[in-house]
Amino acid sequence: MKKLLEGKTxxxxxxxxxxxxxKKLKSDGINPTLCVIEVGDDPASKIYLRVKRxxxxxxxxxxxxxxxxxxxxxxxxxxxxxxxNQDPSINGIMVQLPVPPQIDPRAIFETIAPEKDADGFSPxxxxxxxxxxxxVIPATVRSILTLIDYYGIEMAGKNTVIIGxxxxxxxxxAAVLVERDATVTIAxxxxxxxxxxxxxxxxxxxxxxxxxxxxxxxxxxGAVIIDVGMNRENGxxxxxxxxxMVAPKAKAITPVPGGVGPLTVASLMxxxxxxxxKQHGR
Length: 282
Hints:
single chain; alpha/beta; 6-stranded parallel beta sheet; 3-stranded parallel beta sheet; 10 helices
């Protein structure tokens, strides 16, 4: 293995840059404000929300947390989002996933105003990504791009396999990598002979949430491996890739934890600042 793609160092650089950028905005009377909505009491969400809250405070973003009980109806939630869309003091809106089963996440994505879409999941935002007309990008996708840029990974002409077709990672990631001249294949649960695709891939990006999905025999020598998956096995946090076996063959690989993860919350805060600037014509 030649290169470990750790995310802590570039995440810290993003944080330091945000601190300075937000200071300048505040000196002009602009106070970036992010509203984070939680529905229910998912334990993992509590952890993520605490991390987001702490980082927002550190960089100078005003974070407003709204909590709704687990039995909140979809109509109630969407009505509140509509109110926030109209509130000029709110620059960014995000709803922490997962939400209870009575609420359709797609309805949330469709309701949040694109100009306040901190997560970057709205259909409008995703369409603009494919048309190369948006600088708003889902936070995890921005994290992957940050790693690619920070470590100087050339994507032009690279045979790239993305495992997972979610609107959160797989589909928007394909859009931005195609724009970087990569040759992209999206694999998913119905894909046949996945290993035949990955064996020929220069870059493999996996976002499935299934431990040991990508094994040594599925990877060619010198491939770049970006692992977005998150799983727990016997109390240990791991990704989709069998790291110990795959790493010796890889040109570069992300660890889990410590790869994409540290960048995701920093990328969300960066997105909130981008939205703030756009709303003020900056």
